[in-house]
UniProtKB/TrEMBL annotation:
<protein>
    <submittedName>
        <fullName>Nucleotide pyrophosphohydrolase</fullName>
    </submittedName>
</protein>
<dbReference type="Pfam" id="PF12643">
    <property type="entry name" value="MazG-like"/>
</dbReference>
<dbReference type="InterPro" id="IPR052555">
    <property type="entry name" value="dCTP_Pyrophosphatase"/>
</dbReference>
<keyword id="KW-0378">Hydrolase</keyword>
<dbReference type="GO" id="GO:0047429">
    <property type="term" value="F:nucleoside triphosphate diphosphatase activity"/>
</dbReference>
<dbReference type="InterPro" id="IPR025984">
    <property type="entry name" value="DCTPP"/>
</dbReference>
<dbReference type="GO" id="GO:0009143">
    <property type="term" value="P:nucleoside triphosphate catabolic process"/>
</dbReference>
Amino acid sequence: MEALQLRLAEFAAARDWQPFHTPKNLATALSVEAAELVEIFQWLTPEQSAAVMEDPETAGRVEDEVADVLAYLLQFCHALGVDAASALAAKIDRNERRFPRADRSGGAAPSNRTEPE
């Protein structure tokens, strides 16, 4: 991820885009790109959404939007000094404590929430 962050920083620097890459602007751009990814799936049935990568044109759109989301997330993390991998590992650790493994006898462990944040 560090190599990708460096490459993105060099790309932005070569175009004098750094003044625009503030945390607010990067968070906004990330949100827009995530919405563009959602748009691809907006009216699909669950079955259609599971098969979306079977169509080369749609698969390309999905991959492009995933790349845009990841690029802005990495740039956002770089701007704020967030180690994305460490942040994710810490979040998984917290969720593992908050949401214990399901009881294999058929029921899930009780929780006041149904999904991790």
